[in-house]
Amino acid sequence: MVEIPTFAAWMEANQAQEFPNEATAWAVYNDRVYRGMQALFAHPEVAENRQEAAVAEIAAVAFLESAFGAAWVKEKFPLADRREELGPWVQQARQRQELARRVFEFQSERWFDEFLSYTKTNDVASAIFEADVLQTLMRMPAGIARVTESGVKGQDFDILLNLAYIGDVPVEVKYKQDDTPFSEATVRNTVKGAVKQLPRGQVGWLFIHVPTAWVRPGRSDEYHEVLYEALRQTSRVGVVFTAVDKPFHDQEAGEIRHRRSWDLYKDDGASQELWEAALLLRDLLVKRWDFFPPRAPF
């Protein structure tokens, strides 16, 4: 049986060690979990039968249960372990593991408890995408803060990004469910809803996740035309990052995986500095460079 305690639980159990600061404690905790997982992967039975992926999934589930409780995990991912045939369980199993990784990686952040509370009470797919955006922004040489939900228009955006030479950039995140059909009205309403949550007098970034079913020849031009129409009377959004997850068969792993593609749209209100920062982020994503963020060991 695999057990991975949360950082908070581990700290409580190791108070006697009197770490000089939380950063040191996190480094020790992260190293011990990493070494424990490496030992599991190196076990002869696991290595000989190429069961590393199965062990990683078991560890991810165990950690999620430590963070949220077994009942919550079962409620949110009811299909993940029903594997009699290839079907909806694939997506839920992937979501479960991705959420576990993000929760693990965010434990040392000041806004972790708030992120945990948000995830407990919101749609899982939406929470995972916001977590992905947070992790994505952590690749940047910038300060990251998650904004407390206020319900006040213009102050209810999701993330505050502080970029050198630019300053604060408010970030709003929108997730469209996979069964959402494409229409100009859907895109327009999504963008306008995001605009209302961003502050006046500032130019921000908007991240949108769109369903794979929206991908069609020529759809990019149509999509950009709708973005232009939705943004032409506001200056609150300078750049729109659109994420599309395209499924493919990973023959080496023997699994269905998703490869994320990013589409960038620059509004006329974006400064050259803000656009160059967006291009830098896209370049980091394409090259998969991420020097600073922690990495879950499962």
**What's the overall geometry?**
globular
List segments where confidence is low: pLDDT < 50 over at least 5 consecutive residues: none
End-to-end Cα distance, whole Å, is 15 Å
β-strand amount: 15-25%
Overall mean pLDDT stands at 90
Helix and strand element order: HHHHHHHHEEEHEHEEH
Structural class: alpha/beta
DSSP strand tally: 6
- Rg for CA atoms: 20 Å
- Number of helical segments with 4 or more residues: 11
Largest sheet: 6 strands, mixed
Describe the strand arrangement of the main beta sheet, using strand numbers.
1-2-3-4-5-6
Percent range of helical residues:
40-55%
Keywords, please?
298 residues; 17% strand; globular; Restriction endonuclease
Explain this structure to me?
By secondary structure, the chain is α/β, with parallel strands linked by helices. The protein contains 11 helices and 6 strands. A 6-stranded mixed sheet has the order 1-2-3-4-5-6. The longest helix has 21 residues, at 22-42. The radius of gyration is 20 Å and the shape is globular. This is Restriction endonuclease.
